[in-house]
Amino acid sequence: MPLPIAHGLTGAGIVAALHPNPASRRYGVALLAGALLANAADLDFALVWAFHSKAWHRAFTHSLFFAAVVGLLFVAVTGRARLREAVASGLAFMSHGALDWLTTREGGGIELLWPFSSARLMLGMWGLSEVPSRLPPSGVLKALFIELLIFGPPFALILLLRRRRAS
After folding, report:
1. By CB neighbour count within 10 A (0-12 exposed, 13-18 middle, 19+ buried), where does 1 fall?
2. Domain that holds residue 71
């Protein structure tokens, strides 16, 4: 289960790669929105708190179907004129479930195929920042630093290439 750093850099990277105009004044806001959207699936913790059940975490909010619905809502709100930005926002949200699926070995996986299946899936090959709630503060900081080292360079490269292409 990646921490917010990995999710945020992935979502912002998707938006950076797909944004139609990296020279615009709204570009920074779009990158921030991509980072926030990529973390939004974890708002399911509110359901965990409300219903006192950990079963709500990594459930429907992490599914491809729910991400597609979010993407379609962005398309409906922004219209065809900003279709590329809406698709980038939907993909930023979708990246959360995909990244959790890719980097989970513990914790039971995610409901990637909800509502078609309630099975919790995980690739299980590489555990990234697994179960941070069991780590001491120094372990969480170490995990955040590792995520920054892994996900920061690709994000920086995307920004560099997009700015170079724009000028």
Report:
1. buried
2. 4-156
For residue 167, with 0-12 CB atoms within 10 Å meaning exposed, 13-18 middle and 19 or more buried, which class applies? Answer: exposed
Cα(77)–Cα(14) distance, integer angstroms? 20
d(C-alpha 85, C-alpha 16), whole Å: 10
Number of domains in the chain: 1
Task: Give the pair of three-digit tokens for residue 25.
Answer: 């004044």
Tens digit of each residue's pLDDT (9 = 90 or more) over 74-108: 999 988 888 999 999 999 999 999 999 999 888 78
In angstroms, the CA 113 to CA 108 distance is 14
Whether 17 is in a domain gets the answer: yes
**164 domain residue, yes or no:** no
